[in-house]
Amino acid sequence: MDGKMFVRIGAIVFIAVAVTATAVEMTRHEDAPIYRRVDRSSDEAADPLRAELTRCAGIGEAGPRDPSCLSAWAENRRRFLAPGSRPAERLPDPPQSPHPTATIPAPVVPLQPEEVR
Questions:
Q1: Please, are residues 63 and 56 in contact by the beta-carbon 8 Å criterion?
Q2: Longest distance between any two alpha carbons in the chain, whole Å
Q3: First vs last Cα of the chain: how many Å apart?
Q4: DSSP secondary-structure letter at 47?
């Protein structure tokens, strides 16, 4: 067998694999995506600010011109940036170690009279 024959056989095998893969992909049935309905009515009833923010997000470019959206965004910023809203301030202090870490104080060297001015 010469080199041309190997190239021809390789090309035929490649085409056969490509046709088989295409046939398998075309006959495969795609499963319908599973959608889960999210019920936000209970969340919105509990927090009217969330309902207003959802409405403002849905009105698109009119949101920045709507006074109620501007006030809702200001209230949301106030809540987000308020003291106590950061996780570090809401978490309890870590328990103290039973053995405090030993620190060696730095030696105090008195200043010489010519150094004091």
A1: yes
A2: 102
A3: 100
A4: -
Gap between the Cα atoms of 70 and 56, Å rounded: 9
Check if the beta carbon of residue 52 is closer than 8 Å to that of residue 42: no
Residue 33 to residues 24, 27, 28, 29, 42, Cα–Cα distance (Å)? 20, 18, 15, 12, 26
d(CA 78, CA 72): 10
Q: What is the pTM (predicted TM-score) of this model? A: 0.39
pLDDT tens for 78-114 read 888 877 666 666 666 767 766 666 667 777 777 777 7
Amino acid at 4: K
Per-domain residue ranges for the chain? 38-85
If you search the block for the tokens 């010489």, which residue do you land on? 112
- How far apart CA 3 and CA 19 sit, in angstroms, is 24
